[in-house]
Amino acid sequence: ITIAVPKETASGERRVALVPSVLKSLDKLGVDVRIQRGAGEAAGFTDDQYEGVTWADKANDLYDGADVILRVQPPSVEEAGKLPEGSIVMGFMTPHEGDSRIRNLCKRKVTSFALELVPRITRAQGIDALSSQANLGGYKCALLAAHLSPKLFPMLTTAAGTVRPARVVVIGAGVAGLQAIATAKRLGAIVEAYDVRSATKEQVESLGGKFIDTGVSAEGEGGYARELTDEEKAKQAEVLAQHIAQADAVVTTAAIPGRPAPKLIDKATVERMKPGAVIVDMAAETGGNCELTEAGKDVEHGGVIIAGPKNIPSMAATHASEMYARNLRNLLDLLIKDGELHLDWDDQVIAESCLTHEGDVRHAPTRERME
Ligand code: NAD
């Protein structure tokens, strides 16, 4: 089996799908590995750290005869149309958009595994790249908030007076939000958090945060949130606005899978905030949790800074790549038996993670959308 690893081409992407430590562990699977020169550079891994691999200068040489392609970002439309026929590609595949890419994957009879579709069951935790990357993202967003704030996060007692700890509000207490809470707490801030899923209350409290009770719960299927009714949204917004108005920094991480990010902070709420307050909107790329967010920019409104960072895990590219590469390695483990590729469609993880196979879109919601 030949495994190929390209240098990521998406703008701003620093991660790589295979790191030297994970490469070593592939020995046991009996695979040949081919890597595009410089693939790991932006993540801090030089070519000479990848021992025993074959090098390719261009993507074309890399893909020729490859059986499995490991990626971070989905292939471009053009690239998808050139992948080796019948090959396997695994990585983030954005199944909710990019229909031309998906059509090209079908044309080339590529079996694509989308990490966004990995079922969130205990057995698949080691493959759950959404979680591994969200975790890093939550950490970075808390740091970004501390960095952009003109105030300090910790309480300081000094000869020059006492500094009061910052008040941080985290909205959305999933994987990213919980890490943002933990990080802001470690920096010494007073942290309040909110999520529509009431089950998160206990998790927030276990990290030393205070849960904001809006009286609205929206527990959805599979541990995800459902969309709220208009009345619920208004009630939630008013209680949240009161807490946001008092905050020095707000980190928002609210998401609904496959849907635009819920708008939780409107312009009027931003205008109630203190000058110098900061919002870091982790949902910027899917439309933002704040009405004023612009993806990839820091916007200022009435003295409040609203940051909309893009591709946050890429900011911690070394560790993000390490964790991501382990996720892929664990998926490879399920597909390779005795040195042969073996796709067991009775395995829930394999069946549900597969986006395209033998010319068909296997993921039902994507197929229905594209029809
Ligand atoms: P996500 O990135 O899809 O969403 C982030 C958070 O936003 C979620 O907690 C969601 O409830 C929240 N949210 C949505 N709408 C909101 C709104 N209007 N207001 C406030 N918050 C809102 O979710 P995620 O972090 O990837 O995962 C969510 C949860 O799924 C995890 O916390 C965990 O409990 C569960 N999970 C389970 C497994 C597993 O069992 N293997 C793996 C990963 C996650």
Automatic annotation (TrEMBL):
Kindly give the InterPro entries that the UniProt entry links to this protein.
Answer: Ala_DH/PNT_CS2, AlaDH/PNT_N, AlaDH/PNT_NAD(H)-bd, NAD(P)-bd_dom_sf
Q: What general EC class does the enzyme of this chain belong to? A: translocase
- List the keywords (alphabetical): NAD, NADP, Nucleotide-binding, Translocase
Q: SMART domains this protein is in? A: AlaDh_PNT_C, AlaDh_PNT_N
According to its UniProt record, the EC number is 7.1.1.1
Q: Provide one Gene Ontology biological process annotation.
A: NADPH regeneration
Name the record gives this protein: NAD(P) transhydrogenase subunit alpha part 1
- Origin species: Spiribacter salinus M19-40
